[in-house]
Known about the structure:
- The chain contains 6 helices and 14 strands.
- By secondary structure, the chain is an alpha/beta fold.
- The protein folds into 3 domains: 1-63, no CATH class; 65-185, Leucine-rich repeat, LRR (right-handed beta-alpha superhelix), CATH 3.80.10; 189-337, Ribonuclease Inhibitor (Leucine-rich repeat, LRR (right-handed beta-alpha superhelix), Alpha-Beta Horseshoe), CATH 3.80.10.
Amino acid sequence: MTTEVDKLIVLINTAELSNIELALIMAKELNILQQVFSPYRRLSKLKNIPFHENAVFLHKMVNSNYVNIDNKSIKCFPEGLTQMTWIKVLYADDNLIKELPDDLTKLTSLNTISLYNNPIGRLPTTIWKYPALKNLFIGKISLYELPEITEENSMLNILSLPENHLSELPESISLLQNLEELYLSSNKFCKFPEQISGMKLKRLDMSSNELNAIPETITGLKELKVLMIQNTGLKFLPDNFANLDKLRFLDLSINSFTEIPEPLFEMDSLVMVELSRNNIRLETALEWANLELLMNSLPNLQELRLGWNIIGDIPEIFKTGPLSNRVMLEEEEFGEY
């Protein structure tokens, strides 16, 4: 087990001012200055570093399970980081990091890595080999491809890859056996990645990719509860789309639908549907009757958003009647789900 003294020595060895000050403060708190510094002969880097009055707050940082080095303009990870084997969370967003070193896998307790907005470009195959990693956030890192997964991985639950240059996924993506959330928005996909069909995903975001169509194989995502496919050029849904019988939230906004997609009429699991900013016409009596039929067919549907479409005179049932609280016709933004 890593002792408090060991942790302090590791932090001091990172040679970061904040960590050195932190280590000094904790050492003072624990009365172990002599134990920590007795092996050292060159202490010039520790000279004139003041003790902070708020020792309790900084003490918690040393003892915490996370390291936050967001927005520090660093180009590489601090020396000695791999010795901090007790940490569980590493945040290093908005930096200038170009490489993810293989030896970070020595952080055997690490369950969350966030590297958003770093010019990394390419990931090592070791990214899949962190023994405790559950959450991986690597958006906007100039990524063109994912490394192959060479063995089954039952740990990873969340994989977030927005704002990259991905156009496909490796066939081996299915080896992420317990992946539940996959975020692929704002990439370069021109077709739906059928490699994910059959996975246990509960949440999928493919927004802002030029998909233009959704294949029937999407129904292989039998556990899917949340699907976000806004701004993808869609005009229709596959006929078997209603087989996604666990789907609760569906975002189809900013697409090219001209009418409410027919499969939705059979999806009684839906709780919220976003269809704003399409080309759906609600002008004639028949079109309004069709909308009323949809809402009566789906008693679990709490909210249907249709703002920013082609809407004529609104019938009273949608203004003040029983459907007025379920159908949103105003031009509003949709919140997160």
